[in-house]
Specification:
This protein is mainly alpha-helical. It has one domain. The protein is 63% helix and 10% strand. It is built from two helices and two strands. It has a two-stranded antiparallel ribbon with strand order 1-2. The longest helix has 42 residues.
């Protein structure tokens, strides 16, 4: 069984399935370069990771600000 994957509209297909679905012909060399769909999927994943990192950084900053506020309140009550 072949390990080659064909990507159409952002969906990965095994080479055998791509032949059955008519995306490529038997014996045809499957494209090995990045396709537009792969690039788009990678960009979307990078965007999602960046948004998640930004949310985490925001939460950490808010927690640090809350701790600083509590520390300031403790000093003023002493």
């Amino acid at each position: 069984m072949s390990e080659n994957m064909i990507i159409r509209n952002g969906i990965r297909y095994r080479e055998e399935d791509a032949i059955k679905l008519g995306f490529i012909k038997p014996g045809e060399v499957a494209p090995t370069t990045n396709t537009e769909a792969e690039a788009e999927a990678a960009a979307e994943q990078a965007k999602a990771e960046a948004e998640a990192a930004a949310e985490q950084a925001k939460a950490e900053a808010e927690a640090a600000a809350e701790q600083a506020k509590k520390a300031t309140a403790k000093k003023s009550t002493k």
